[in-house]
Amino acid sequence: MIETVFFTGSSNWMLNIVFIIIKIAVVIGVTMLHVMYATYFERKVIGHMQVRLGPMRVGPHGVLQPLADMLKLFFKEDIIPANADKPVFKIAPIIPVFATLSSLAVIPFFEGFVIANINIGLLYIFAMSSLSAYGVVMAGWASNSKYSFLGGLRSSAQVISYEVAMGLSLVGVMILSGSLNLSEIVNAQQGYWYGMFLIPQFVAYFVFLVAMFAETNRTPFDLPEAESELVAGYFVEYSGMRFALYYAAEYIGMIIMSSIAVICFWGGWTLPPMLTDAIPALKAVPGIVWFLGKVYFHIFLYYWVRATVPRYRYDKLMALGWKVLIPLALANIVVTSIVKYVI
Amino acid sequence: MTIKDIAKKVFLIEIFKGMALTLRMMFTHAVTRQYPEERREPFPGFRGLHALVRNPDGKARCVGCGLCAAICPSQCINIYTSESKDHKKVVDRYEIEVLRCVYCAFCVEACPFGAVVLTPHFEYSDYSRDALYMDKEKLLSNWDKFMTGKRAEEYFERFWRPKLEDFTTPENQPVFRGKEG
Ligand code: SF4
Ligand code: SF4
C-alpha cells in the first residue's frame, strides 16, 4: 500500500507532503553525488583520451578526488571584489543552482517516480534553463570586470539563440506524442515498435544535441567561459563556495539536458517493445537502470566531444545557431506535421 | 564545392573521425609517469644541482680565477679569495645561490680547470632560502654525493685527461690534417 501511495499520492495531504519531501531529498542527494562523480569521471575520461591518467593521488585511482575538491572549495576564502555590486554578486550563483535543481522536479526517473507530474513539464524545463542564464548574466554584470562582463554578454546571446533551436527541435517530439508531460512522452514512445523518437526524429535529435551543448556552455560552445581568452568568463571573480555553486549548476545542467534527451528521444526508462518482446527477461530489469545508462551515455558524450572538438569562433556559433539549426528544426516540424497528418 | 565536400560538411565527417580517434586513444596506455614512485634516470647532459670538483687530495679543484662568476648571466656566483703566506691564491668562500641560477652551464664551460660541474640531481626543493644557498662545503659534498661511480669516471675522462695526451680533431672528422710529423 505504502508503495502505491509513494508513487501516486493519497487523499491524505500530510502523507503526500512527507513523501514528496522524501522524494526531493533522495533526488537531490543522488544528483549531488552524480555531480561530484561527474567531475571525477570527466577528468578521468578526458585524461585517458589525451593519453594521460587523470587524478590518481587521492584514494585508489583518485576516487576520493571529488571529496578533496569539495573540502578545498568549502574552506577557500570567499573573495568579493571591492567594486562589485555586492547584493547581485552574492545572489547570482544561487540562481543557476536553484533553477537547475528545480528542473529535477519534473523529470520522471522511472515508471511513476517523478516529484511533480505536471502537464507542462517540457515548458517548465525550458523556463528553468533560461532562468539559469540570468545567474550568468548577473555574475558578469556584478563582478565589475571586463572578462566576466564579456562572458555574461556572450552567454545571454548564446542562450537566446540556442534556446530557440532547442525548443523548436522538441516540437517534433511534442507533435508525435501529443503531450508536454514528460512521462506521457515516454509512454507515447512505447506505442511504436522501435520505442524511441530518435528514429523518426533524428534531425531533431541532432539539433537538440548541438543546442544541448550550447545551452550548458560546454565545449565546443563554452564561449562564456572561454579560458584562453576570458580567463574563466563570467565567474572569474568568484571563489570558494560561490564558485563551487556555478560548477555544480553546470553539472546539474548537464544531467538535466541528458535526461531530457533520454526522455524525449531515447524512450526514457523503457526499452523498445521490439527488444522486450524478443527477450522477455529484460522486462524484469528496473527502469532506472536503462534510464541511468542512457543518461551516462549522454554525459560521456559531453566529455567525448570536449576532448575532441575545439571551441567555435563566436560568429560561427551564432551562424550555426541561426542559419543551420533553426531552419533544420523548422523543416523537421513541417515534415513531421505533414507525415503525422497523412498517416 | 563538390558533392563530396558538401557531404563531408553535412555529415560532420571530420568531427566523427576525430571522435573515433579520441575514443581509440582512451583505450591505449597512458604515457604518464607517476613521478615520486616511478622515477627515471635523467638523460646524459642533464643540468641539475651544482657541485665543486674535489681533487684526489680531498681539496676543491677550484683556484678562484673568477671566470665562472664573470660569465654567469644571473650573477649568482660569489667568490672570496685572499693571499696566503707563500703568495698563493686561496679560495676562502665559493658560494652559488641556486635559486637564481638558470642552469645554463656557462660556468662549467668557462672554468679552465673543470672545477665546477652540474650534477644530474634535481630534487632539492626546500622551505628556506638558506638551504638553497650553496657554500663551498655543500658544493663539495654535492660532488661526493651525486658524482660517484660511472659519472665520476666519465667526468674524469672528459676533463682530467692525462697531461701528455694529444688534443686533436676526432679521427672520424673529415678535415685537412696537415703534414704528418
Ligand atoms: S649554470 Fe649559468 S646561471 Fe647557473 S651558476 Fe652557472 S653560469 Fe650561473
Ligand atoms: S672558473 Fe673554475 S677555477 Fe675559476 S673560480 Fe670558477 S670554478 Fe674556480
Q: How many β-strand stretches of chain A? A: 0
The fold-level CATH name of the domain at 47-164 in chain B is Alpha-Beta Plaits
Principal-axes geometry of chain A comes out as globular
Instruction: Please compute the radius of gyration of chain A using only Cα atoms.
Output: 21 Å
> What is the N-to-C succession of helices and strands of chain B?
HHEHEEHEEHH
Q: Tell me the strand order in the biggest sheet of chain B.
A: 2-3-5
Domain 4Fe-4S ferredoxin-type (chain B): 50-82, 92-121
Binding site for [4Fe-4S] cluster 1 (chain B): 62, 65, 68, 111
Subunit structure (chain B): NDH-1 is composed of 14 different subunits. Subunits NuoA, H, J, K, L, M, N constitute the membrane sector of the complex.
Binding site for [4Fe-4S] cluster 2 (chain B): 72, 101, 104, 107
Q: Can you describe this structure?
A:
The complex is a heterodimer of chains A (343) and B (181). Chain A has 343 residues and is mainly alpha-helical. Chain A is 68% helix and 0% strand. Chain A contains 14 helices and no strands. Chain A has helices at residues 2-8, 13-49, 65-75, 86-91, 94-103, 121-142, 146-177, 182-189, 202-215, 227-230, 240-265, 273-278, 287-308, 314-342. The longest helix of chain A is centred in the N-terminal third of the chain and has 37 residues, at 13-49. With 181 residues, chain B is of the alpha+beta class. Chain B has a domain at 47-164: 2-Layer Sandwich (Alpha-Beta Plaits), CATH 3.30.70.3270. In chain B, 30% of the residues lie in helices and 13% in strands. Chain B has helices at residues 3-10, 13-26, 67-71, 106-110, 136-146, 149-159; strands at 50-52, 77-83, 89-97, 116-118, 133-134. Chain B has a 3-stranded antiparallel β-sheet with strand order 2-3-5. In chain B, strands 1-4 form a two-stranded antiparallel ribbon. Chain B is elongated. The N and C termini of chain B lie far apart (75 Å). The model of chain B has no long low-confidence stretch (mean pLDDT 82). The A-B interface holds A 45, 47-53, 56, 304-305, 307-309 and B 15, 18-19, 21-23, 25-32, 34. Residues 71-74, 76-77, 96, 101-107 of chain B line the site of one iron/sulfur cluster.
